[in-house]
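Regression report. Comparing outputs from two consecutive submissions.

Submission 1:
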Amino acid sequence: MPAGPGTLALPLARRARQVTAVEPSLAMVKRLEMHIAEEGISNIRILPEKWEDLSDDEVGEH
């Protein structure tokens, strides 16, 4: 499931140290970035790709 506009990523970011949001749609990435800025959140890393295209290095340790 992609990150979309942040429906899950934003609430998670309020409770977690770091959130990685994977979203291939540039339109959704822009909406997510807008919501992140509006809420003053700084711990979401956006990967503008499909899950299946990510390498282990891009995802990192969780």
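Submission 2:
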Amino acid sequence: MEKNEFGKFLKEYMDNHGYKLEAFAAEVGYSFGLISHYINGRRSPSYKFINTFFKKFRLSEKEKIKVLEILKQDKLPEEINELEKKIDNFSEDTRIQNLNSKTRKQFDEFLEEAILMFNDEKIDDEDKEKLIDSLKEVFFKAKELNKRKK
């Protein structure tokens, strides 16, 4: 596989579903310049883009697996493992799927900052997952409390 397999997949997906670059970019919420970079292989997509792509376009499990396999060629092994974990975690929680873009951005920033605390190798992956799940709960409880105050 070449380094630009994701770009080829994305271009083929857009063609098969009748999307022009600008319309696809608007639908997924990213600039058409960035999407063009993905298609031409100048950039690799972030996990946020992949997650958004999966959610907005309701790819089949087979297509999702194909995308993840393609990304394994473009990214380092540790990056793709992290990507798979994040996508799996986010796609299962309907509360996360139902967030508007502003709240989703707050959630992502909150989680990214919190994850920095877990860079210590002394914490095993199972404990990290438990902590991340707890942080998700804290985030949603805080949001609920803020709604009640208004």
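Expected: both submissions complete independently.
Actual: both completed, but the second showed a warning that disappeared on reload.
Relevant detail on submission 2: The chain has two domains: 1-91, 93-150.
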